[in-house]
Amino acid sequence: MPIIYYDGNCIYCYNYAIWLIQNGLSHKYEFATIKGNIGQQFFEQYPEAKNKNSVILQKGNHLEYQSRAIATLISSLPNNKKWIGIGLWLVPKPLRDLGYNLFANNRDKMWKTHWHKPTEYEKSFFLDDNAKIKLT
After folding, report:
1. What's the CA gap between 18 and 106, in Å, rounded?
2. What is the pTM of this model?
């Protein structure tokens, strides 16, 4: 099963995960926090991924980072949001990654939002119930 590793302390990362679920992400995908037990096991197996400041999509031994992971996930949606992912693929990778890095490096300085309280269905996508990711 593909696993999406994300920063469990990041409200935007968590809410992006919820947005994907709410927009029809297949249940074949699962989420794990980078700092959780599953994330730490992942980094033991793939130490080269540890220096990435990124969402990571793992499909078997294949890893995708940054905007590539985001575009792949959005493109996998079955509804009218899929066109956003397709549009992202049309943007050159260096430009996509620049946008991703600008957002990732400045996310704490951005507008305020709130932690979404997940439904039982949304919780079922998460592999670890880390208290820091507001799953309770």
Report:
1. 21
2. 0.86
- Sequence letter at residue 48: E
Please report the beta strands in the chain, taking only residues with DSSP state E, as ranges in sequence order.
3-6, 30-33, 56-59, 62-65
Determine the structural domain holding residue 63 and report its residue range. Answer: 1-129
Residue type present at position 56: I
- Cα 12 from chain centroid (whole Å): 9
Is 56 within the bounds of a domain?
yes
C-beta of residue 57 within 8 angstroms of C-beta of residue 69: yes
Domain assignment of residue 134, yes or no? no
Per-residue pLDDT of the chain (136 residues; tens, 9 = 90+): 899 999 988 888 899 999 999 999 999 999 999 999 999 999 999 999 988 778 999 999 999 999 999 999 999 998 788 889 889 999 999 999 999 888 888 777 776 778 889 999 999 999 986 444 444 3
